[in-house]
Amino acid sequence: MATTRDAEIRKDVQTYYGQVLKKSADLQTNACVTAARPVPKHIREALQNVNEEVSLRYYGCGLVIPECLENCWILDLGSGSGRDCYALSQLVGEKGHVTGIDMTEGQVEVANKYIEYHMEKYGFQAPNVTFIHGYIEKLGEAGIKNESYDIVISNCVINLVPDKQQVLQEVYRVLKHGGELYFSDVYASLELPEEVRTHKVLRGECLGGALYWKDLAILAQKIGFCPPRLVTANFITVQNKELENMIGDCRFVSATFRLFKLPKTGPTKRCQVIYNGGITGHEKELIFDANFTFKKDETVEVDEETAAILKNSRFAQDFLIRPIGEKLPTCGGYTALEAKDIIKDPFKLAEGSDSAKSRSPPEAASGCATEKCC
User: Fold this and answer.
1) Which of 234, 264, 267 is nearest to 350 (CA)?
2) Residue 325: what pLDDT?
3) DSSP labels for 112-174?
4) Reported confidence tier of residue 174, pLDDT bands at 50, 70, 90
5) Under DSSP, is residue 75 helix (H, G, I), strand (E, B) or coil?
6) What span, in angstroms and rounded, lies between the C-alpha atoms of 78 and 167?
7) DSSP string computed for 7-69
8) CB 239: neighbour CB atoms within 10 A?
9) Tens of pLDDT along 257-302?
10) pLDDT band at residue 373, thresholds of 50, 70 and 90?
């Protein structure tokens, strides 16, 4: 029975994204165009190089371009028209590779249409991007092998799949040790009632399939990921009165999380770290997530989990990591690990973001709507 219902949901989503939506302006909520952090210059330039038709068919809910990308192999789940893939293919360089997978044939066709256009624009000798028609919960069927990617990204797509645990299990399988899932998606403040979960428009608009935010940590732990690290969060507004009435008291956020797959090693102790400023576009500081910002040459105390991630991921080359108490060569400041609550709740972070925006001048608060970055 569940399989039949899942197939119906999948068909509805394919119809919505393949036939109903022709451009991002057709969306009835801002779930797919919520504001993100200010975008680094090198990423803005990469987005501006993406073909216009590809950008117009983009329906993501956040900017899912992480840091430290040179030579990486990246998989984009639900790559759609290929906007993020083409930006990333430029950022990873000719030695890196980007694969996009999407279940909507029309979107894959748009993406494939412009491979030669982008490779010529970037001056690459051979394509470093591939687009596959397939399902993100069935990566094996699409030919994607174990431990073959450094980074997996997803932009407002996992909510469209009924079996989210299966998606995360597949991501864990294809990630290398030290790799991460860096993804934006929609989360609900409550468990959603059946009439919301099965509503075709709400499903297509990314709200009907939204995960109750606390369930993400439960799924991550069950599969083997480190606890989710919250990066950004913004409230979603609904511009349709009928849909708003159906949702009732439930609130929604678009949030970006990082999930790391680390090798099984012994327990890690708290450490002090110094960022060397070596990541392109983040030379002065690296905003790692909502709780940790690393300024160049400044010593920062980090907890056991953060230390393990920095030691065992692609970020290791950009940090000097030493036990607490050991003297470090630094000309910067020192930030102790404060006894503060780590922000894990995206709704709490979104409330803080809204408060900051209301206190800022309009030009400072506007940020960058992902759709308008292109």
Assistant:
1) 234
2) 84
3) HHTHHHHHHHHT-SS--EEEEES-TT-TTTTTPPTT-EEEEEEES-GGGSS-HHHHHHHHHHH
4) very high
5) strand
6) 11
7) HHHHHHHHHIIIII-SSGGG-SBSTTS-EESPPPHHHHHHHHTS-HHHHHT---SS----S--
8) 10
9) 999 999 987 778 899 999 999 999 999 999 999 999 999 999 999 9
10) very low
- Alpha carbons 163 and 168: distance in angstroms, whole number: 9
Contact 285, 296 (CB under 8 A): yes
Give per-residue burial for 273-296: e unless 16+ CB within 10 Å, then b.
bbbeeebebbeeebebbbbbebbb
User: Using an 8 Å Cβ cutoff, are 100 and 155 in contact?
Assistant: no
What is the band of 358 on the pLDDT scale with cuts at 50, 70, 90? Answer: low
Query: Which amino acid makes up residue 182?
Result: Y
For residue 30, the tally of other CB atoms under 10 A from its CB is 20
Of 211-225, 257-271, 350-364, which one has max mean pLDDT? 211-225
Determine contact, residues 75/157, Cβ cutoff 8 Å: no
Q: CA–CA separation, 50 vs 112, rounded Å? A: 13
Question: Residue 12 corresponds to which amino acid?
Answer: D
Tens-place pLDDT, residues 102-150: 999 999 999 999 999 999 999 999 999 999 999 999 999 999 999 999 9
Residue 52 burial by CB count (10 A; 0-12/13-18/19+): exposed, middle or buried?
A: exposed
Cross-strand bridge partners of residue 275 = 296, 319
CA 18 to chain centre: 22
Helix or strand holding residue 320 (H, E):
strand 319-323
Q: Are 31 and 252 in contact (CB under 8 A)?
A: yes
